[in-house]
Every structure is written in structure tokens, then in C-alpha cells.
Amino acid sequence: MSEVEVAMSEVVLNRVDDRLIHGQVMTGWLGLRRANTIWIADDGVASNPMMLDIFRFAAPSGIKIEAFTIEKMADKLRDLNKGNDRVILLTKVPKTFLRLMEKGYKPSDINYGAMAHKPNSRNVASNCDLSAEEIEDTEKLHQQGIRVWIQLVPFGGQKPIEWEVARKKAGLK
User: Fold this and answer.
1) What's the N-to-C CA distance of the chain in angstroms?
2) Range with lowest mean pLDDT among 1-15, 36-50, 56-70, 158-172
3) Domain ranges, residue 29
4) In a domain, 112, yes or no
5) DSSP sequence for the chain
6) By CB count within 10 A, which of 7, 32, 43, 125 is most buried?
7) Does residue 1 sit within a domain?
8) Structural domain contains residue 131
9) Tens-place pLDDT, residues 8-45
10) What are the angstrom distances between the C-alpha of 113 and each of 2, 6, 34, 126?
11) What does the pLDDT read at residue 109?
């Protein structure tokens, strides 16, 4: 009697990056995590086919890219039994992960990539500036036991910075 393999999709990287897909950076993460699919959780991108086409153009060929509203993303994350995708889940802001968690998703860790400087933001790591709201949301994620780590690229000798270290630069004790 042979064992039957059950196909199942898996989220291999949860990532916050306000650029979402950025050519060589995403190529590096896709390779490192052996991902074949990118899911974007963003109401704006999900409702703008032209924007989604731009992201598809920016991604490496052969990679499936889909964008969903937060509501639809929560549904997809509840039912990973369909398909056999290795998924990188992208959001623009930490609050999206909090909203997904309210709907039942529980990531073990979340990677932060580039977050552009904006008025009144604080630099917590190289090329990672967070607004007061993003700092508060990140702290909420951290307090719920989720590992938050900052690493823009998976190459070039860059090492991850844990939120426990970065939060001091954010003004938290």
C-alpha cells in the first residue's frame, strides 16, 4: 500500500514592504524560500487590475502573482488545502497582518523589508522607517508572540535585525 501525498499550499514568507514587489529583492526571496507564488494582501491593488499588471511585469517569469482584498485573503489563508503553492504573502503595512489575524491567520514570523521615509517616521533599521502607527502595530504583533525581523534583502551578507533590537530605535523601552 503506497502513501498518498496530500497537496497543500504553504506560506513560506510573510513580508511587509511598502514597495510590495521589487525586482531583484523579490527574486532573492523567491529563490531562498523556493516560492512559486506571490499573494498581495491589499484592497487597493486587488481592485486595480492595471497595478496588478505592473507587479506581474516586475516579478520573475513563471511566478504566479495574485492580489486579494484583506477579506478574500483571510478566506484563502483559512483554506490552504487547495493547491500546492509555496507562497510569499506581501502587505504594504503591518496593520494588514493585524487585520488578517483578527480573521484567524496566525503567522509565526513576519519579515519587514524596505519602508520609505515619511513625515514623522522613525528609522528603525537601514531603509526601514516606520510611522507611529506602524510602530504601534508592530509592537502589537510582537506582543502576540510573533517574531518580527527586518531584513531588506536575503543576500550581500545582510543579517536580520530582530524587533527586540529595532524597537529601541523606535523609542520603545
Assistant:
1) 58
2) 1-15
3) 10-169
4) yes
5) -PPPPPP--EEEEEEE-TT---HHHHHHHHHHTT--EEEEE-HHHHT-HHHHHHHHHHSPTT-EEEEE-HHHHHHHHH-TTSS--EEEEEESSHHHHHHHHHTT---SEEEE--B---TT-EEEETTEEE-HHHHHHHHHHHHTT-EEEE-S-SSTT---EEHHHHHHHTT--
6) 125
7) no
8) yes
9) 999 999 999 999 988 788 899 999 999 999 999 999 99
10) 43, 33, 18, 10
11) 98
- Output the pTM of the full model: 0.93
Which amino acid, residue 59? Answer: A
DSSP 153-165: -SSTT---EEHHH
The answer to whether 58 and 40 are in contact (CB under 8 A) is no
CA distances from 98 to 45, 55, 95 (A): 18, 24, 5
Q: Does residue 5 sit within a domain?
A: no
Would you state the torsion angle of the CA atoms of residues 44, 50, 90, 18, taken in this order, to the nearest 10 degrees?
-70
C-alpha–C-alpha distance, residues 121 and 131, integer Å: 4
Residue 144 near residue 128 (C-beta atoms within 8 A): no
Counted domains in the chain: 1
For residue 75, give the CATH number of its domain: 3.40.35.10
